[in-house]
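BUG: 3D viewer hangs when loading the predicted structure for this chain

Environment: internal workstation, default settings.
Expected: structure renders.
Actual: progress bar stalls at 90%.

Input used:
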Amino acid sequence: MSQLDDRMIVLTGSGGFLGQFVLRNLLEKRKINVENLTLPRSRTDDLRDLAVCERLVKNADIVIHVAGRTGGIGYNKRYPGSLFYDNIIMNTQLMEASRKAGVAKFVGVGTVCSYPKFTPVPFHEEDLWSGYPEETNASYGLAKKMMLVQGQAYRQEFGLNAVHLLMVNLYGPGDNFDPEDSHVIPSLVRKFVDAKKRDLPFVILWGTGKASREFLYVADAAEAIVAAAERYEDGAPVNIGSGKEVSILVLAETISRIVGYKGELRFDTTKPDGQPRRGLDVSKAERYFGFKAQTLLEDGLRNTIEWYEKKYFEE
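Structure tokens produced before the viewer hung:
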């Protein structure tokens, strides 16, 4: 039996990449009754509108806020204003509506992009305020960071049980592979699969390959969110990741090998690397609510590549 049984839950972003896995976890693993779930969708429910948020959370016990506007480095550089506005307004309005409605718990999904550009690795939650985020994703990261500030302020003044999860880069089946706004793993998967299909002699990748990232398989991320909804009660932010750092070069070589691409990797050093390093200390998530990532990077990459090839080349 889950601690979420018989609770009325609002899950935002349930039609998105991460949200679909959170929904599946609630229904299939926690056996939550679908009648207890409210699942707003962007085409009918604009979370930037306070009246819409008030309608959605009117009878809610728990709000799990997964929805957000996001993209890779290129997308962040093109649309910093839109990313800032859309994220900060929907976060603010949804939490305000939750506070007014007397919601028992608000689970906010933040981002590793909120950390300072030169945070020592591994990132500890206490480092969150020691500097300014990396410039290409600062507007997105700071908008998400304000959800943490709002949650802590509302906890202090109104008693709202708001918790905040600092989510590392995600990947997995169902990811966004659109080159306009995809993140690094789906972007690389698309490039290498396409290069193999077209028998291209080389693939051009952004940056130097020296930057590092930490990645978390999307089903593991969903488990972390639901576990926090069940068991985490504190206002301090918590890192959610795999605890394993990998360079972009090694990541690209791994994806190339799994895909079976035999050509050359070339890096366009005129393009930005983004934040130099990302790697999290994830001990608090395990200590506070029992979360530890279960999926190895290579296994997750194989699942992702198989899904992409089946979705786009076998239909």
